[in-house]
């Protein structure tokens, strides 16, 4: 019995070793390994590209491909949906290369990665509206794209960042609107008014800002504040004319 157990254990270890060897990145010259990684990136083989790039990064941290390998890893992690790894790689690269010529791209990828954390494939597939989800990734992405436009106004990624900022602004406004509506339904009139006014102040040119006036109006009516009701009704009429 012991002999059979030992043979079985040896077989398992042998198979595990074969599996490790199969998955291991070959010890070849860095130029060849980099070429293979690039081929995987171009064909969309993100997992294999990541394996090879990580091997290059660990084996040759100060090699001639060092910076590009780190940049490629950021992109591969992002495309593979490994967002925490992408963000960690971005932070590392930015810390080590604060004035790199591709810093605008790195910041752009940071915004894209934060933005991707807010999306959900199943929600999109079934058309589920989740504007009430935690907006922290959206806020982070908003800051990233805004910072890119401030630091690199002539960047190749400026136009797309500007368009994404508009989308994110509406996303944040819709989140605050859902909060105002929640307060209204809970009969927290003052909280509903405060949140509505915050939307109008922070996101004045959004649809959510116009909708928040109706929540504000209802809350003022419940509180019996006739003057405030009249002012809000005037604001609603004014917005209709725009």
Automatic annotation (TrEMBL):
Pfam families: YfiO
Segment forming the signal sequence: 1-19
Record SUPFAM superfamilies: TPR-like
Keywords, ordered alphabetically: Cell outer membrane, Lipoprotein, Membrane, Palmitate, Signal
InterPro entries, per the entry: BamD (IPR017689), BamD-like (IPR039565), TPR-like_helical_dom_sf (IPR011990)
Annotated Gene3D superfamilies: Tetratricopeptide repeat domain (1.25.40.10)
Top-rank taxon, per record: Bacteria
Membrane topology category: Lipid-anchor
Localisation per UniProt entry: Cell outer membrane
Domain Outer membrane lipoprotein BamD-like: 27-234
HAMAP family in the record: OM_assembly_BamD
Family: Belongs to the BamD family.
Subunit structure: Part of the Bam complex.
Role played: Part of the outer membrane protein assembly complex, which is involved in assembly and insertion of beta-barrel proteins into the outer membrane.
Name of the protein: Outer membrane protein assembly factor BamD
Species classification: Bacteria, Pseudomonadati, Pseudomonadota, Gammaproteobacteria, Vibrionales
């Amino acid at each position: 019995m012991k002999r059979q157990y030992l043979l079985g254990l040896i077989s398992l270890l042998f198979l595990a070793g074969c599996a490790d060897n199969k998955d291991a990145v070959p010890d070849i010259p860095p130029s060849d390994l980099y070429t293979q990684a690039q081929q995987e990136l171009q064909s969309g083989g993100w997992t294999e590209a990541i394996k090879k790039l990580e091997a290059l990064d660990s084996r040759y941290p100060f090699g001639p491909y060092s910076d590009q390998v780190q940049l490629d890893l950021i992109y591969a992690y992002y495309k593979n949906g490994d967002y925490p790894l992408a963000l960690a790689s971005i932070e590392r690269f930015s810390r080590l290369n604060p004035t790199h010529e591709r810093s605008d791209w790195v910041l752009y990828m940071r915004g894209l990665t934060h933005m991707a954390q807010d999306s959900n494939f199943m929600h999109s597939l079934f058309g589920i509206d989740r504007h009430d989800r935690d907006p922290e990734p959206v806020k982070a992405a908003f800051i990233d794209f805004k910072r890119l436009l401030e630091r690199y106004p002539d960047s190749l990624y400026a136009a797309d960042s500007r368009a994404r900022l508009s989308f994110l602004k509406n996303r944040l406004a819709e989140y605050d609107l859902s909060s105002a509506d929640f307060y209204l339904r809970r009969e927290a009139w003052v909280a509903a008014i405060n949140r509505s006014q915050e939307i109008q102040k922070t996101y004045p040119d959004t649809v959510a800002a116009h909708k928040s006036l109706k929540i504000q109006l209802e809350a003022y009516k419940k509180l019996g504040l006739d003057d405030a009701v009249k002012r809000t009704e005037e604001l609603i009429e004014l917005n209709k004319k725009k």
